[in-house]
Amino acid sequence: MTNVTKGSDATTETVETEAGPARITWHKAKQARLVLAVSHGAGGGIEARDLRALAAVLPAHGVTVARVEQPWRVAGKKLAPAPRTLDLGWRGIWPALAGPGLPVVSGGRSAGARVACRTATELGAHAVLALSFPLHPPGKPEKSRAAELLGSGVPTLVVQGGNDPFGKPGEFPEGPYGLVEVPYGDHGFAVPKRAEITQEEAVAVITDAVVEWTGSLG
Asked: What region holds the KANL3/Tex30 alpha/beta hydrolase-like domain (predicted)?
């Protein structure tokens, strides 16, 4: 069951899943060829700067963007549940994401990127966009999550801050995926005021990379 609410430039849809109600905010392209579905991390929501920027830029390039709020966020909880529950919610959301009949790029930031990687093959994702992939907990590189990234099974792009404590670009293993560095960026792609690029330029690195990458997907 879904409940749809229309706004000025977006449509919000509530989707029932086995993990509880989830919410999709659609930013539709006029002549869409892909859907890019992106979810949030374990400590934030769809208002994250990278997700907002993608929603603003991608529709003009033929990509409908769906910003997805997991059930725990819709329920107002402050802590994310276990990975298996996140995966359960994503599975329940997927039929709505595939509803337009277009190839779906599964994506997310941080914990959302892990979910996208873990479920990509199972759900038939066209590709995976991993924003700020948490390669390891801060200060604990021995607890690597590289297997999730390497196991996505579909074309994958990682966009990573150059100063991300959850894994700097140089820490990532070689593998069948692309990696774009956002210079000076932290886990939220924030850059220090003393950095050689502005915050706006840092965000443009993200959107430019995703525009180019989605344009290359068959």
From this structure: 32-213
Q: How far apart are CA 48 and CA 185, in angstroms?
A: 14
What strand order describes the sheet that includes 34-39?
A: 2-6, 11-17, 20-27, 63-69, 34-39, 104-109, 127-131, 156-161, 178-182
* Count of domains observed in the chain: 1
* Burial of 149 (C-beta count, 10 Å sphere; 0-12/13-18/19+): buried
Residue-wise pLDDT for 39-95, tens only, equals 999 989 999 999 999 999 999 999 999 999 999 999 999 989 999 999 999 999 999
Q: What is the CATH number of the domain that holds 14?
A: 3.40.50.1820
How is residue 217 annotated by DSSP? -
| DSSP letter (8 states) at residue 176 | S
Judge whether 2 lies within some domain.
Answer: no
